[in-house]
Predict the 3D structure of the following.
Amino acid sequence: MRWFCPALPLVHMNLVHRAGPSISLSSSSTRTYIGDKASAQCKAHGSPIRCGHFRNVVINTGGKKMSAVHDSKQFRGALSAFATGITVVTSRSSEGQDFGLTATSFNSVSLDPPMILWSLDRKSSNAEAFAKTGAFAVHVLASDQEHVCKQFSTKGIDRFAGLGCGRGYAEVPVIPGCAAVFECRIAHRYEGGDHVIMVGEVHSFTSGQKDPLVFYRGKICDPFLQPNA
């Protein structure tokens, strides 16, 4: 199935220092840096503009002001503009205990060798278990598996109850009925701020013809970005 995304309009932006004059950037501006040493390359001026120490930078988009300083809530909101699939990552401890969680931070890394990654919140109740395991399975949930997404996001329950899981690579539980499943050995763990980046080398995978479940603007959606009822 082929997906089509609507074209996004060009945005005219202004960089505004809260304590000083504004600097206008046309839609032809190539890059904006956010932080202590914000700078921009603006074709209208023909050379880089050094904005100095701009701790509070505001992007003006058609009358709507959006703070560009580091704010976790606003940053999360901006990231939600990127529609993603929803995955469930499962694993099994050396003691034979199954565990897993819902994750949207999934991405491809390499074709040769085949590698994927996902990110684990350090505060997750499963952080310690994933730190000790050597394998995991990433399940790309199908559009009819919203209940699986919610089940693996709920604390204090048996997240595998009623799913009829099989066993895959390294005896990791595999959930049936997914759009795709990637069974991996852990190749690398990297520090990533408040997350740990888990890179897996794919041992085997399955892929069907099901449409995926989608997460967009904080909501679970169908493949055409319509919020599920």
User: Anything to note?
Assistant: Residues 88 and 102 are 4 Å apart (CA to CA). The longest strand covers residues 180-192. The chain has two domains: 13-79, 84-221.
